[in-house]
Write a structure and sequence with these properties.
alpha/beta, two-stranded parallel ribbon, single chain, about 375 residues
Amino acid sequence: MDIIAQSSLLIADKSDQSQNGLESCDQEIATFSPTLPLEVLFHILTFLQDKSSLLAAARVSSTFQRECEHILYRDICVCSFWRFDRFLSALEKRSWRPAAVRSLVVTPRHSWKYEYTSPLPSVISLMTNLRTLKLKGQFMSSAFEGLRLPSSLKSLSIRPWVRIPLTRLLNELTSLQYLDCIGREDITTVSSSSFLPNLTWIKSDTRSIIHLVPNRPVTGVSMIEGLEEHEQASMFRALKQSSCAIEHFTGYFLATSIQAGLKMILHELPQLQTLEVKIDDHSMDTTEAVDWKSIPICGNRLRSLKLSVDEDSELFSRSPMDPSCLGEWKGQSPLLNLVTVDQSSWNYGPSGWILSSIPRSRSRA
């Protein structure tokens, strides 16, 4: 019995030593601080490309956690309001997290079913390094009461269902360069030239474009609705009043006016480099055709031309664009090196055809 008792005591003693060793090791890990400068440590951690490795490294110590989270929180995309709330709560738990966010995209699935009414927390204003903010979903006005967006914002996208006091939020974003929004009555009432003074690209409705382009360094314009004939003069007058030449343009046209529309664009915007035109031919007579060769491409700096129609359109079967047309266009404009004919659903994404290699059949390239 003495031998058994002594053996038990020996085993218990070794167990205690082992336990003490583990606790000591845990304390060392918890207080571990690398001797490398934080800048060097952060640079090393940027080589960890996958999220799982960064999460594992974040558990090494509080120092590692902070540096890893500067990478993990850099680009955030959430697909539900519930996850968005969890993300905002996580930001409030660590003081360094808000400043780590560079890009925030909120694109909830089934967004038409749910509304976001809770006031957004002030932690959003602490995202002092935020560059891109995209909000898609039914954010109600109550969510933005008293909210201030960080002045560092460069790109802002507001989708149709977002109902917010947009002018008040934009008024302080003097660094904003890209604006994607559906027209708001309050935007078209702003007259001060200090409003969005650095805007370089706008994607919006006709009225907002006409109002915001003049006297600003806008070089890119994307229309999200068709350009009515009575609005064409006002539109191109506004585009000419940009403090920089318009180099990129995307617009919608009816097929019946596509020839005149392209001629006007190329004539009014001689510095244009990329042009994308979405063509609606649903109201076009099935016997009508478009004479592509009659569209003058010469005398401009156009490098890329993209023509898009809906996937059920028969425009290009009635008005085929053969390689000779491409050759003639390139002969007129030596800089033109890419012409794309895109037959796709505008709702579900593009599926392109390259004109220089279009097969005679209607199979997709």
